[in-house]
Amino acid sequence: MELIQDTSRPPAKYVKGIPLIKYFAEALGPLESFEAWPDDLLISTYPKSGVELLKDTPAPRLLKTHLPLALLPKTLLDQKVKVIYIARNAKDVAVSYYHFYRMAKVHPDPGTWDSFLEKFMAGEVCYGSWYQHVQEWWELSHTHPVLYLFYEDIKEDPKREIQKILEFIGRSLPEETVDHIVQRTSFKEMKKNPMTNYSTIPTAVMDHSISAFMRKGITGDWKSTFTVAQNELFEAHYAKKMAGCKLRFRWEL
């Protein structure tokens, strides 16, 4: 991550109607001339949805993005680049994203949890609407080579999900190697690894005394943050936004 000197929590910058971290929005220009290769592998998630599982998985050129489809270089779709998409339930994402906003000062000021949750539901957080993000990639999976995975499934049985990934990219590994990947990509291992926990980033950019970048990594942590009233409001809003969508998420394991 490039060191950022201005840590004044600048407001989000909108690109095609989608709010982004100011510095990232200003760096999108080179994407216009990006040329995808057919054997590229794209890892896509909404922020705070978990992608580290794939770091030790063999691949040709590994690309990672949080961008919604509207901001993705068209060449990636034209070349039919394989995509692994990881989705996580919205309640856990909202809580995790709030704490990430608090500690990563490239984000606008998150305000209170209550006000942040309202912004999250309205899609007024960086990278836009969670609802749009998970649904548009789900729809793309019907016409494009997309392996759609769920964070909760990975937590439940990481070895099973790694085997899905290997099959999708046309690779095979000895079982002991897969077991090693499972061990190395566990939340416990990554939380203490400076290569994945961002602990070497200056405090002026990421303040780990406010919240760790890798905080809990569990499913169902939203229950310790949502009030009963917030949960009822969220459930009603969720039902409207996900009406007609066949995606089903697990709120706890």
Automatic annotation (TrEMBL):
<dbReference type="Pfam" id="PF00685">
    <property type="entry name" value="Sulfotransfer_1"/>
</dbReference>
<comment type="similarity">
    <text>Belongs to the sulfotransferase 1 family.</text>
</comment>
<protein>
    <recommendedName>
        <fullName>Sulfotransferase</fullName>
        <ecNumber>2.8.2.-</ecNumber>
    </recommendedName>
</protein>
<keyword id="KW-0808">Transferase</keyword>
<dbReference type="InterPro" id="IPR000863">
    <property type="entry name" value="Sulfotransferase_dom"/>
</dbReference>
<dbReference type="GO" id="GO:0051923">
    <property type="term" value="P:sulfation"/>
</dbReference>
<feature type="domain" description="Sulfotransferase">
    <location>
        <begin position="44"/>
        <end position="245"/>
    </location>
</feature>
<dbReference type="GO" id="GO:0004062">
    <property type="term" value="F:aryl sulfotransferase activity"/>
</dbReference>
<dbReference type="GO" id="GO:0005737">
    <property type="term" value="C:cytoplasm"/>
</dbReference>
<dbReference type="InterPro" id="IPR027417">
    <property type="entry name" value="P-loop_NTPase"/>
</dbReference>
